[in-house]
Design brief:
Elements (H helix, E strand, L loop, with lengths): L4 E3 L18 E6 L7 H8 L10 E4 L2 E4 L26 E6 L2 E2 L5 E2 L2 H18 L6 E3 H4 L6 H5 L1 H12 L6 H35 L14 H10 L14 H12 L6
Helix pairs in contact: 2-5, 7-8
The structure holds zinc ion.
């Protein structure tokens, strides 16, 4: 996975734990709640002392920047003693902040490119630390803060985000061509099979003999054959075998439609 993580000015030690005494079990997604900020802006801001908060990563138009090293715990998911989530805490989670904007409607949104980069980073960290997708949370899921606000207001955006964490990655041109060749080869096989099927149908139509007006007889022919038998136009041999070919069935149907077996 090609991912570029830039090292921003490191978070000031007064804004985070300079250690981590638990395994990384969760990844928590946030938004900055700003309008048009950049990842580097945020790193610079949090490199100053006494900001009272922090995050491991910021994702903006300018890319992915690390602020708090992974082996330090950021102050990101706390803020109250009443947690919604029973286990996720700063010490066992990595926090990613997405830079946000305010739209013409006055509501927050996250640019598609930033969401995409955040998905990439989250997948990278899931893989690196063995974090399962169900342990990727919104800040909102840890305690009741509307963060990231667009993903709380529109839960379908969050569902889409989560779906894209486990879906297949974008194909390279080489993989695309390989798949295309595979599909074309399958399509050729299907065409061959359809051809064989046509030939089989042809064989059945030219060689099949219908001896009785039963389930083996095509249903479209049965009323006409019955009428022809009732009329006496079609009779079986001494064993009652009708010995009708497919062509005979077609002819009997034609005659039946013309009223030849009407009594
Ligand atoms: Zn948050």
């Amino acid at each position: 996975m090609d991912i570029q993580i830039k090292q921003g000015p490191q978070c000031h030690p007064s804004n985070c734990y300079t250690y981590r005494n638990d395994d990384i079990l969760f990844i928590v997604i946030h938004f900055t709640g700003n309008n048009g900020d950049t990842a580097l802006n945020n790193c610079t801001f949090f490199s100053g002392a006494n900001r009272k908060a922090s995050a491991n990563y910021f994702v903006g138009n300018d890319g992915i920047y690390q602020s708090v090293p992974d082996n330090w715990a950021a102050w990101a998911v706390g803020g109250t003693k009443i947690y919604k989530h029973p286990y996720c805490r700063n010490m066992n989670s990595i926090s990613i902040e997405m830079c946000s904007r305010i739209g013409a409607d006055g509501k927050y949104y996250i640019r598609d490119g930033i969401v995409e980069q955040t998905i990439k980073l989250t997948r990278y960290l899931m893989n690196k630390y063995g974090v399962p997708v169900e342990n990727v949370l919104r800040h909102y899921d840890v305690w009741d803060k509307k963060c990231p606000e667009p993903f709380v207001r529109q839960p379908e955006l969050w569902e889409d985000f989560k779906r894209r964490l486990t879906g297949s990655e974008d194909l390279t041109m080489e993989q695309y061509n390989e798949l295309k060749d595979l599909i074309n080869a399958q399509a050729a096989k299907i065409a061959d099979l359809q051809n064989i099927n046509k030939q089989l149908v042809n064989v059945v139509q030219t060689t099949m003999v219908y001896d009785f007006n039963d389930d083996n007889m095509p249903s479209w022919a049965r009323p006409a054959v019955q009428a022809a038998m009732d009329y006496g136009a079609v009779q079986g041999d001494e064993n009652g075998r009708l010995g009708l070919s497919y062509k005979d069935l077609r002819a009997i149907c034609r005659e039946y439609r013309c009223g030849m077996y009407d009594k």
